[in-house]
Each structure stands twice: as C-alpha cells, then as structure tokens.
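Dear H.,

Thanks for agreeing to be a second pair of eyes. The structure we're designing against is below in token form, covering all 223 positions.
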C-alpha cells in the first residue's frame, strides 16, 4: 500500500522549474505570433474598407457628372475654365449646360485644394439658371480625399491626367464631345504606403451635336 502511494506521488509531481520555463517560453511565442497576426489582419481589413469607401465616393461623383453630361446641350472645354470662372486651374473645373431631369440649368464641377501645395482636395458642384448667375447655389461637397495628379499633364501618362479634359483620342463618329473624368481617391484610414484609387471614365454629351449657342452658361457667378 505504501509503495503504491509513493508511485502515485511521483506521477503527480508535475513540471520541474526548467520544464515550466520552457513551456512558458513556447506559450509566450505562440501568443505573440497570434497577436501579431491578428493586428496585421485588422490593419489589412481597415485598409480594405478605406479603399472601398474611396471607390464608392468616386463612383457617386462620376455617376452624377455622367447623368448631367449625357443630358448636356453644351459642354464647355475644361481647359478654358480657369481660376476666374471656378477658383481652380484649367482642367480642374467642368461647366455644363444640361437638361437633366427636364430642367435647363448650368452645372459646374470642380476639384479644389485648400492650398497650392496641398495634395488632398474636394470634389464640389453648384448650379444656376442659364443667364441668371445670381441664382447660383452654394458649392456642395460630393467627395473628399481627392488626390492631386502628378504634373505636368501628359495625355500619354494616366498618372498626370487632371480631373477633367477633352479626350480627342476616342472617336464617336459624330461631333459629340468626349470628356475624360479622372478621380484619384485615398481615404485617411488607408495605409500610408498604399497608392490612391484611380477611377476614370469618358462621358459623351449626346446633345452637343445640335449646335447649342456657347452663350448659354457663359455668364459665370463668382467662384
């Protein structure tokens, strides 16, 4: 009976100090690895959500512009819409005389930056009745976190494309005017080393072939 008790006591002795230290070290390494993996997965998930938000903002802006341009009677060349007309440089503003929703109106879009050295700006728009600049609405924010393109502008290099420009490289078979719209977005929650999301599209003003007078929407409110 005593012998049996002594054997059982040795079996229940557990770990000695060295074995315990080895077990704790292995456990700590496993916990550290799992924690690092979880942190990396959370950071990746946050970056993916940020990129998704950027794409959604860009698509919302593009869809609104697309409807107005496709119903446009007159699209003014963005290269001629400068600081005096929009408060931003040429090709950063787009002015359209449109009948979207059956209502004639002037619509102006712009990508504006808070300073000449700023790399992140906003996509805004405003409207007014043709020939009545005093009816202009305030600038409305459609998308923020719009990134400035590289410079100088080169039609052969997409990284330099400004927000708005007439793309003559695409033929339509008619006199319809093609406007290239490019928005580069980067959400603040995206990784610092991640590239901006670029969304680009060409929209065509179908009604521009009918030769509406360029006087329409030529009177521009102060930016």
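And this is the sequence the design step returned. I haven't edited it by hand at all.
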């Amino acid at each position: 009976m005593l012998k049996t008790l002594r054997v059982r006591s040795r079996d229940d002795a557990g770990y000695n100090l060295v074995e315990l230290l080895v077990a704790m070290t292995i456990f700590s390494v496993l916990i550290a690895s799992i924690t690092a993996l979880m942190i990396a997965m959370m950071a990746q998930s946050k970056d993916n959500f940020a990129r998704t938000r950027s794409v959604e903002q860009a698509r919302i802006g593009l869809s609104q512009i697309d409807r107005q341009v496709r119903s446009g009677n007159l699209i003014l060349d963005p290269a001629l819409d400068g600081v005096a007309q929009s408060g931003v440089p040429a090709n950063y503003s787009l002015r359209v005389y449109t009948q979207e929703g059956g209502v004639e109106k002037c619509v102006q879009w712009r990508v504006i930056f808070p300073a000449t050295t700023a790399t992140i700006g906003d996509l805004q728009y405003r409207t007014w009745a043709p020939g009545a600049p005093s009816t202009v609405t305030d600038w409305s924010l459609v998308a923020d976190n719009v990134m400035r393109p590289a410079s100088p502008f080169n039609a052969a290099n997409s990284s330099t494309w400004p927000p708005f420009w007439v793309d003559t490289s695409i033929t339509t078979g008619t006199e319809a005017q093609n406007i290239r719209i490019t928005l580069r977005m980067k959400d603040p929650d995206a990784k610092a080393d991640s590239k901006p999301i670029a969304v680009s599209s060409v929209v065509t003003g179908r009604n521009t072939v009918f030769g509406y007078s360029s006087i329409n929407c030529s009177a521009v409110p102060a930016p």
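Two observations from my side: The mean pLDDT is 82. The radius of gyration is 30 Å.

Warmly,
E.
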